[in-house]
Amino acid sequence: MPRKRNDYAQLLTRIEFKGTGVGMAYGGTICSPQKSVAVIQDFDDKTSFVASIMAHELGHTLGISHDIFFCNCTAGPCVMSPIISDEPLYEFSSCSVKEHQMYLLSDRPHC
């Protein structure tokens, strides 16, 4: 397969990960040629659940860490919650938005 230029890539796999994690990504590496990537375990037939994990791992790559107890969302659990939820995740918390803005200003990723 020929190499394609990209700013970010995700690999979905049915291979079972060791431990409790269902996704892995480098933090704060969006647009980095070698590290702007995530690997997600596609272990559930619910598309919305796998999509939530994909959004969560993208968040890490965008410089966002897990939400802490005072970070809230209006529509249920937040995308960057450290705990996996059965509910679909619809939004990033205000904490996540602020952290991403700080990442953009300090690291200035170039895509």
From TrEMBL:
Residues 1-111 form the Peptidase M12B domain. GO terms for cellular component: extracellular region; plasma membrane. CDD domains: ZnMc_adamalysin_II_like. InterPro entries: MetalloPept_cat_dom_sf, Peptidase_M12B, Reprolysin_adamalysin. One of its GO terms (biological process) is proteolysis. The active site is at residue 57. The keyword Signal does not apply. It is found in: Secreted. Disulfide bonds join 31-111, 71-95, 73-78. Keywords: Disulfide bond, Metal-binding, Secreted, Zinc. Signal peptide: none annotated. This is Peptidase M12B domain-containing protein. It comes from Micrurus surinamensis. The lineage of its organism: Eukaryota, Metazoa, Chordata, Craniata, Vertebrata.
